[in-house]
Specification:
alpha+beta, Arc Repressor Mutant, subunit A, 28% helix, 26% strand, binds zinc ion
């Protein structure tokens, strides 16, 4: 029997590997094949964060997650109205460049504002 925990972890890894944009909790939850309770999903996300698999992005509408391997220190834009988040892959920065001895572990590079659609309304 395959344990439930293994299933959830592989489902999450799969989900993020196939996603072009960062995902928030409700998107993650609705993409899972099996119904898990919130605590299990958050615990698994936390584990993937600690293992360096995922990267967490904080916005004024909550957290988003994305694969760390795809997040080579790039910027994100987040729309405060429709909650749309995008990776700006060609805008890479090195936050700790020049800070000697500092080890990067987590990046949360989000520009808050209005997307093209919402800014026209
Ligand atoms: Zn918007
Ligand atoms: Zn990204």
């Amino acid at each position: 029997m395959v344990s439930k925990k293994y299933n959830l972890e592989s489902q999450l890894r799969n989900l993020f590997e196939n996603s072009q944009e960062p995902l928030c909790y409700s998107q993650i939850e609705s993409s899972l094949n099996t119904k898990y309770n919130k605590t299990s999903v958050y615990r698994q996300l936390e584990k993937l964060l600690n293992n360096g698999v995922l990267n967490k992005l904080e916005t004024n509408k909550g957290s988003f997650y994305e694969l760390k391997s795809s997040s080579n220190n790039h910027l994100h834009t987040h729309c405060k109205i429709c909650n749309d988040i995008k990776c700006i892959a060609d805008q890479t920065i090195k936050p700790s460049e020049g800070v000697s001895g500092f080890v990067n572990e987590q990046f949360s590079l989000v520009i808050e504002g209005l997307c093209g659609k919402c800014s026209k309304q």
